Amino acid sequence: MSDRPSFGARLMKLFGFAVLASAILAMAFRAPDRSLESLVARWGPPPSDFIELKLPDGRLQLVHLRDEGPKTDTVPLVLLHGTAASLHTWEGWVKTLGASRRVITLDLPGFGLTGPAVTGDYSDDRYLEFLHTLLAHLGLRQVVLGGNSMGGSFAWQYAARYPDQVRALILVDADGLDLPHPAVPAGVRFPGWRLVQSLAGVFLPRPLVDRGVRAVYGDPSKVSAALVDRYFELTLREGNREALAQRLSQRVPGLHVDQLPGIQAPTLILWGGQDRLIPPAAADTFHQALPHSRVQLFPALGHVPQEEDPVSTAAAVQAFLHSL
């Protein structure tokens, strides 16, 4: 009689190891939601402000924003962050530009300390409606509107929809074109899988966030532990992970791209030459479509050049604003 364990016994042993490994991973990467109150001290100290914005349907949306620089500036710079980011991505620009310009930054619904949208709608059109309501609430008739990635997409779409309100436009590695993603096969879209959403609401490996942040920098060695902390902790803000999944499932690339040629606002297009998410060729596409645009490429920078090298990129913005 053979002393070797039966196939069934070996299978049960293997299953036992799998369960044990899963339990260890679950303990290691379990990341429960964090309340707004627990995050404010580190990520929302002054000059941060929190307002309750009344939406067109009467509901109130909490908004985390910062309004810095001279309030006498009647045409402020309003900056919109990208997916999974927050207003903190513009801190370097605010430090430079805020000495002479009024600069307003905010966490868009679904991100940062603003948290999930009360409407549950993360379509481009709903974001444009939100922005229009916010600018009216702040009493701003005209602005210089800028945005990075997703925020850049909202910025140019807003300029197309409300041309009289946008004095000038700044696009930083902007999204919104229907271009193939280098890491995603053609035709594939981000689905709203319930299983993925439920798992994302419980687990968030910090090493995965670390890798994601490094991927958007041209020089990953510039990514500090504190920077990863910011992205990681703000993603854990209650409701943000589900909101991110919903935003990705509702995203429709190229939805309003036919409106680009009609944008008359002077436009500065900034792009990182090492952008691995939206290729630098997209800058030329925007430049060809926008009649009053100029392009400045930063060969060594990645997808978030305003964050990776705020000094050089802010200098380009200053020169652009002085030319208006």
From TrEMBL:
Keyword tRNA-binding: no
Pfam families in UniProt: Abhydrolase_1
Gene3D superfamilies to which the protein is assigned, alphabetical: alpha/beta hydrolase
Domain AB hydrolase-1: 76-310
Keyword tags: Hydrolase
Keyword Ion transport annotated: no
One Gene Ontology molecular-function label: hydrolase activity
UniProt-listed InterPro entries: AB_hydrolase_1 (IPR000073), AB_hydrolase_fold (IPR029058), AB_hydrolase_sf (IPR050266)
Protein name in UniProt: Alpha/beta hydrolase
Species for this entry: Roseateles amylovorans
